[in-house]
Write a structure and sequence with these properties.
Chain A: This is (2Fe-2S)-binding protein. The complex is a heterodimer of chains A (155) and B (270). Chain A is α+β, with helices and mostly antiparallel strands. Helices cover 34% and strands 14% of the residues of chain A. A five-stranded antiparallel β-sheet of chain B has the order 3-4-9-5-6. Classes of the chains: A alpha+beta (155), B alpha+beta (270).
Chain lengths: 155, 270
């Protein structure tokens, strides 16, 4: 099937898509958007988190056909080549990025949180990021990053 | 469509179906995307009940139904992660019919009914008659789960679940409790401790009989303990990777005791 998806504000079309392949596969392998990472493929790790119509979801659990006509925002759509999104900037500044594999998913999840709830408590931050696994940082610097990003949004 | 292509796999949040597709465990000839069917994606109240559409995501159950369906909302709150709760819903939980499904204990405890639709018509099945075995239910090949109808809470409800962390956990065991202070009935639902979700009928009868409903004093240790033991006795758990049968029974007795205490405290405060 042909799938039409608005991604990061632009209309994209992918052909010869098997309706049951994941949105993640379409993004990475068919549309050249490798920012969303492919790790567990079962919704466990959050590395593929994207906005689907403004709601954070695991792209690996959305069937390509379900994304037809919908709007998707990936980590590539947050900042620009020249200017990082404040959440990305906060991750860089606090050292919340180590191997980097979980980072795109965490950035999207954190982006959603700080815009929905810029005065989130630590417990709320942990809850919001509970679906994103990081095996490097021990999460402390990620929490620092989200607090810093939230301050930026509050201002 | 489901009747014309019974082998088509319905998909809503995709949190079960996509895992099977991603891991090549299933290659259905067709997927039936229920996500765009408006009738399935909302809820409404109707004569003391909530009719909850099959695809209403857990996030909305948590956000919108905490007062009307507190037990189900508490269970929904423990499902997966924010990303999973944004997609998954009760219809898919029932369709998958896992004994560990988080929505099942509160549906059993509240006496909910499941609405199944096909070209042959619509039928409703009590939640405790819906499950036949692990991942098996009365859902026919040409049918879809369209909604659940859950009585609005008529007293305190509780849900508790044992797992290794606070997110992304398939229950080791779980327990749902619903008290009806009007009819003085007690409802129970046991998750992940048997081939299907189970009710603990003896525990329900015991508690309904002995709870001091009039001018309620504190719950005695004896009642709480006996209730826990009756719940544990109703379970038929197995040893598996998530836990042993003995641990599940023990944990269930504790969950049952605790949830009864919490719920009874609510009765007293009211």
């Amino acid at each position: 099937m042909r799938v039409n998806i608005e991604i990061n504000g632009e209309r994209h079309t992918a052909d010869d898509v098997w309706p049951g392949e994941s949105l993640l596969y379409v993004l990475r392998e068919r549309l050249g958007l490798p920012g969303s990472k492919n790790a567990c493929e079962q919704g466990e790790c959050g590395s593929c988190t994207v906005y689907l119509d403004d709601t954070p979801v695991c792209a690996c659990l959305v069937a390509a056909g379900q994304a037809e006509g919908r709007s998707v925002r990936t980590v590539e759509g947050l900042g620009t080549e020249d200017e990082l999104d404040p959440v990305q900037e906060a991750f860089v500044r606090t050292g919340a990025v180590q191997c980097g594999f979980c980072t795109p998913g965490l950035i999207v999840a954190a982006h959603e949180l700080v815009h929905r709830s810029p005065d989130a408590t630590d417990a709320e931050i942990r809850e919001a990021l509970a679906g994103n696994l990081c095996r490097c940082t021990g999460y402390e610097k990620i929490l620092d990053a989200v607090r810093l990003a939230a301050k930026g949004v509050q201002r | 469509m489901k009747a014309a292509t019974p082998e088509a796999v319905p998909i809503a949040g995709g949190t079960d179906v996509m895992v099977e597709l991603n891991f090549d465990k299933r290659r259905p000839p067709a997927l039936l995307d229920l996500g765009r069917v408006a009738e399935l994606s909302g809820w409404r109240t109707d004569d003391g009940h909530v009719r909850l559409g099959a695809t209403v995501p857990y996030a909305r159950i948590v956000g919108e139904l905490g007062d009307l369906l507190p037990g189900l909302a508490m269970a929904a709150r423990t499902v997966g992660s924010p990303q999973i709760r944004n997609r998954g819903g009760v219809g898919g939980n029932l369709g998958s019919a896992s004994p560990a499904g988080d929505a099942h204990p509160p549906l059993l405890a509240t006496g909910a009914t499941v609405e199944l639709a096909s070209v042959r018509g619509v039928r409703t099945v009590p939640a405790d008659e819906f499950f036949l075995g692990p991942k098996r239910s009365v859902l026919a090949a040409d049918e879809l789960v369209t909604a659940v109808t859950v009585p609005s809470a008529a007293g305190p409800q509780q849900f508790a679940k044992v797992g290794t962390r606070n997110a992304m956990v398939i229950a080791v065991c779980s327990f749902g409790l619903a008290l009806d202070t009007g009819t003085r009935r007690v409802g129970t639902g046991i998750g992940s401790a048997g081939p299907t979700p189970l009710r603990a009928a003896a525990a329900e009868d015991f508690a309904a009989e002995v709870l001091p409903w009039d001018d309620p004093p504190a719950l005695t240790d004896e009642v709480a303990r006996e209730f826990g033991e009756l719940v544990a006795a109703a379970a038929t758990p197995i040893d598996d990777v998530r836990g042993s049968a003995a641990y599940r029974r023990r944990a269930l007795s504790v969950l049952a005791r605790r949830t009864l205490r919490w719920a009874w405290q609510d009765v007293r405060v009211r």
